[in-house]
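To assess whether the prediction recovers the assembly geometry, we first specified each molecular entity separately, as shown.
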Amino acid sequence: MQISKAMNRWYSGRTFRRFNTGVGHGNLDSQETIINIPNASVYRFGDGKYAQPLFQDLTWTVKEGESWAVIGSGGGGEKTVLFNTLLGRYRIAPHPPPPGGLFPFLSCAGLDPYSEVSTVSFGHRQPAGGAFYDYSARYGAVHEEDRLTLRQHMFPQTIPPLRMPYEDPNDTRELVTISDEELTVFDDLVAQMGLGQFLDLPLIALSNGQTRRARILKAVLKRPQLLLLDEPLTGLDIKARPLLLRTLHNLHAKKVPRIILGLRAHDALPDWIDHVAYVRGPTVITGDRDSVLRKIEHGSGGWHGQSKKPEVSKTSSKTQIGEVLIDLKNIKVQYGDRKVLDQLSWQIRQGERWHLVGENGSGKTTLLSLITGDHPQSYTQTRYHTSDSNSSNSSNTRETSSHLQLFSQPRSRLPTTLLRSAIAIMSPELFDAFPRRSSMTVWDVIGTGFDGDFVPKGKRSVGSGLGMKVTSDPDLMRRGGYEGAMEGQDGWGKEENWRIGRVWEVLHALGPEAWKQADTGMQLDSSSFSQSSPSDLTLDFSKMSFPSLPLPQQRVVLLMRALVGQAPLIFLDEVWSGMDETMVRVAREYLRGNFPSTSKSSGGGVGPNQAVVVITHWEEEVPWNRDEDSGVFKRFRLGGGKGWVEE
Ligand SMILES: Nc1ncnc2c1ncn2[C@@H]1O[C@H](COP(=O)(O)OP(=O)(O)OP(=O)(O)O)[C@@H](O)[C@H]1O
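The predicted structure of the complete assembly is given in tokenized form:
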């Protein structure tokens, strides 16, 4: 393998800084101290003297050889704020004094924290600007600019430079060879992370779990002294998690790099973690693992190691299985020789609650994109053939050997606007792609859910009814299968009022009022809820600028957007990743129908005519289970291109 001179210079730069270690002003203690915050408060830059600190009385010392996890439990993304504090994005007052400063081990070696401390955060979205970008791009023909393979992404300098026609295309003078040592490290890590077979695939084609592992690999290859990994396990399948944890443990033990793990309060704590910083609101409790876990158990009831058992569901008592909404028969998706889905059949009916499972790369997102109509191959799945002469019907009878029927229609007959309002979705791709315009309020974002829009529409920001709903009502089917009214039509006033009521309901049931009550252990009081006079907390939240919210709250708002319109079919793909424990608990209970709604039209949660598909690698995150929801809860497993209902 070859790298360019640019990379060589980069290595030289590092070597130079490392040779500088002689200028250190530290002693042995400094070398042994990784992080040092004696006692300080943390503020946003620009905050005034009397501003409320983000963290108060923060005392945190990390010593060489210790293994730390930062556990976040608050809804404000405090864990990420603590990581960002280490990255210099907030003001520490008083700042840890020189000569050691915040990172004594770096200062005493003359190393620059700016380049030696890095982070990979999975709570964060990829930068996408203010506009919506096409997140379905990966399913179609790969654009030239997206052809970058995983290998090239790891070593961008190996991409041959563009040459003028008169230049020799085989001229390799610009390229130099990667050292054997580098290659060994790379090959080892690729094998440990199970990425070998994807090295020559376009980066954009990798599944979520594969992309996450690739991002960690890239960060490790840069060889920082300290790597902050925020929620590295979310989105990884059960097999991949222990493998990744073992790899991270090995790297940490060898200090290439030292690693601090960011975990959610309900994630399992790896055995090798011996110290914990537990973040809740402005308070950070730090210390050895046992003492911190003891304090939390006695205090605010935070650490459980896993989610609480959910309350008894009201789902099964009121839900009956109804009409077929989605009908897939002998579905195939293939890229070149690579078969992703092969002869797959699946039916989704009204009232069903599905858990879609399968290892990373087994095709869950691909299947979902076929059903939402985003995948170009969703148009090509219907193949008719004339039935044989044994058919009881006339010779014109046509049967399908393979088909994809969405609400009793082939994909090509359903306008995309209609599908967007008929299938509500929350997924990592949507979270990354959803536009962040500062003028968009929380209300606006939730209101886009009715018609599946990405920008607010309609006078009251609850859509204009353009998408409407697909119905399985036989009378309405004759009118094209759509129900609902459009802005300007008879019936719009009633529809608009219903929509406004629904926005208030999801805000109340899943928003700050509900988090507050769940945190204090109180039942959410439905009698205090009124659409005409929502609580100040709910009202203020509805007016906030969406992009200014902490990321966990943005996730909840996009979940509200998926639930607000009561679409016939809802996909919840990895919705809990990046949310804190309280938000997950509140949302799960709401989905199980444990929200005592005041509105007759709603019933809270999801209705008996709706179907829900949850995609997650974490069993305990699924709101329904076999025992309590038998009859409506089912599991569909993907593996080796096939799919089957698991008994
Ligand atoms: N354009 C493409 N070319 C080649 N392979 C592709 C392409 N797009 C997707 N794939 C492959 O299809 C497989 C299925 O990907 P998909 O995202 O559906 O998996 P997934 O089950 O959702 O995984 P995860 O649990 O990691 O989210 C992956 O192995 C992926 O690399």
